[in-house]
Amino acid sequence: MSFEQKEYYAPVPATTRGQPVRLSTDPEGTQLVYASGKSIVVRSLAAPEKAWEYTGHTAATTVARFSPSGAYVASGDASGKVRVWGAGGDHILKGEFQPLAGSIADIAWDGESQRVFAVGAGKGFGHFFTYDTGNAVGTAMGHSKVVNACAMRQRRPLRAVTASDDATSVFYHGAPYKLAATLKRDGFVQDVRYAPSDEWFVAVGADRKVLLYDGTTGELVRQVAAGAEQHAGSVYAVAWSPDSRYVVTAGGDGTCRFWDVQQDCAAGVVRLGAGPEHQQVGCVWAGEHIVSLSLSGALSYLQMGSDAPVRVVSGHQKPITAAALSGARLLTASYDGRVCAWDTDAPCTPRVVGTAAASVDAMAAGADACVALGTNDGGLQLVAGDSLQPATALGTAPRALAYAADGALVAVLHDGGVAVVRQGRATRLDLQGASAVAACGRVVALGFADASVRLYALADGAAQLEPTGAAVAGHMREITALALSADAQLVASGDGAGKIVLARAATGDVVTTRWGAHTARVYSVRFSADAQHAVSAALDGSVIVWSVARPLQRTVIRNAHLGGAHAACGG
After folding, report:
1. pLDDT digit string (tens) for 348-375?
2. How far apart are CA 476 and CA 452, in angstroms?
3. Hey, what long-range contacts does 488-493 have (CB within 8 A, 24 or more apart)?
4. pLDDT tens, 178-234?
5. What is the 3-state secondary structure (H, E, C) of 324-370?
6. For residues 524 and 545, is the Cβ–Cβ distance under 8 A?
7. 242: preceding bond cis by omega (within 30 degrees)
8. What is the C-alpha to C-alpha distance for residues 24 and 293, in angstroms, rounded to an integer?
9. Cβ-contact 413, 446 below 8 angstroms
């Protein structure tokens, strides 16, 4: 068996309140680049549903930038490492360097695609080095606190500039790069960017001012539009228009403002909302695309002359903890409670259905497009269309959910108990030690902490489970995942050691115990609609497709998800 990736549903950028986020594009201005989790995400600006990721980092990524030649990408992470890798093909690693001991905040390339400037936290706060050998060509001298941003002039004479929490920007002459001037201002300096023409650069920060400097000498030219209305909060990011006439700034007041540098005046404002989630912490301008990033992770497409976004792209920012497939609709939930809906029939960006009251630990799809999700505050919520219904209290947080006949929902709770929910009423059963559940019609399979799997029948019209007498043996560890085939003939059970057992649901007779390719806890198992295959996801990050007819035949997708694959859906 072989596999081919059909779609990649990209996350949105990771954000932290009070900190700027670096967005960038490829040299052609057609792809948006940003950090999310331990990955670097590259997605089309014109069609953001088209995306791919680079997964070479072992720590949380922070920034990535294409070289001007377009041949390489330099990406940094929270451990202080910078990886330089090929932008095309298999993304072959060119080199890995450790310029800083702390997190990398920003990266810049020179116009010759030969030198890289990485800044952030740690001794020195920033270093210049060659992209291929890592040889040092300068140090970011002159700072006493973390450096938030950096920019390099693309033409000779070579210049570089920084933005720091010590309320200064430092200007450097190169190469090798040496301190030439210290540019002081009031408050943290959050971002600095050279114009595409290299004639000027601008710096923004906590003092809410947009300051314009000469790109060759580093001398202050003026404050842009000093007499116009300014941001009401810190300015976290700035970006130039391709013709070097305008800049757009992203502010903590929830607005993006346009400035005409040549005419020295304000050129427009877009108000994206009130509240912390609407703080604008990043922006980029590439061709006709102007994109701003909210603290919530929303990517807003802006247009000069329009006072509202022309498009908003959303998604998950946090790890996905649960998923369910309902027809062609995939619903996913992350530990921050955000629930998204995806159309699997075509490439798409998701619709945010809503935010649950707490982290979502379990999800199940039933008939009539009904989807239930359990939250770790002991609630049970239903997804109806594109909205979340009020929660039903279970008393204890559900660990696993499964729909049975007549819309009954069977919930395994974190305290080992089992509850049956009918018409919004939860009935707790006299069962203890349960750890996993699967259901099909009136057949219900329960897995237990004592490594056993037992089969039950749902009573007609009542919230009761009646033992069938069938049980599955072969496990040595707690049962962590269960699945029943669509005809309720087969049951697959996964345990905490990574082993999966396939058995007959009616009798408990084992079909095979040879599904043991996972090396860590199995989080999820699902059958295909025809019950000829099963798919499993585990803590080891692997997704495995198994053959029912030929148990020794399997397709292993290693490192499908960094940090573990939490949910698998079959259909």
Report:
1. 899 999 999 899 999 999 887 789 999 9
2. 9
3. 488/440, 488/441, 488/443, 489/531, 490/527, 490/531, 490/548, 491/438, 491/445, 491/453, 491/455, 492/525, 492/527, 492/534, 492/536, 493/436, 493/445, 493/447, 493/453, 493/525
4. 999 999 999 999 999 999 999 999 999 999 999 999 999 999 999 999 999 999 999
5. EEECCEEEEEECCCEEEEEECCCCCCCEEEEECCCCEEEEEECCCCC
6. no
7. no
8. 12
9. no
> CA 418, CA 458: separation in Å to the nearest integer?
13
Amino acid identity for residue 248 in this structure: V
Residue 217's SS3 state is: coil
Which residues, in sequence order, are CB contacts of 42 under 8 Å at separation 6+? 26, 31, 32, 33, 51, 52, 53, 54
Q: What DSSP character marks residue 390?
A: P
Distance in angstroms (rounded) separating the CA atoms of residues 462 and 375: 25
State the Cα–Cα distance between residues 357 and 390, nearest whole angstrom.
10
First to last CA, the chain: 18
Residue recorded with tokens 């949105």 = 12
The CA distance from 267 to 483, in Å, is: 58
Q: Find the helix or strand (DSSP H, E) in which 202 lies.
A: strand 200-205
Q: Cα(51)–Cα(32) distance, rounded to whole angstroms?
A: 9
Rounded to whole angstroms, how far apart are CA atoms 143 and 555?
A: 53
Give φ, ψ of 277 to 5 degrees.
-65, -15
- Bridge partners (DSSP) of residue 109 are 116
Between CA 459 and CA 457 the distance in angstroms is 6
Residue that is written with structure tokens 């990011």 in the block:
237
DSSP state of 177: B
CA distances from 63 to 12, 154, 252, 484, 556 (A): 13, 19, 20, 43, 31
Which residue carries 């890798």 as its tokens? Answer: 85
pLDDT in tens, 262-319: 999 999 999 999 999 999 999 999 999 999 999 999 999 999 999 999 999 999 999 9
pTM of the model: 0.94
Q: On the CB side of 266, how many CA atoms lie within 13 Å of its CA? A: 13
The rounded percent of the chain whose pLDDT value lies above 90 is 92
Query: Which pLDDT score, from 0 to 100, does residue 346 have?
Result: 83
DSSP code at position 73: E
d(CA 255, CA 514): 58
* Cα–Cα dist 322/331, whole Å: 8
Beta-strand relationship, 510-515 and 490-495: unpaired
CA dihedral 256, 257, 260, 263 (to 10 degrees): 180
The angle formed by the CA atoms of residues 269, 272 and 276, to the nearest 5 degrees, is 125
CA 229/CA 259 separation, integer angstroms? 11
Beta bridge partners of 351: 341
Q: Whole-angstrom Cα distance, residue 247 to residue 390? A: 45
Are 242 and 276 in contact, with CB atoms under 8 Å apart? no
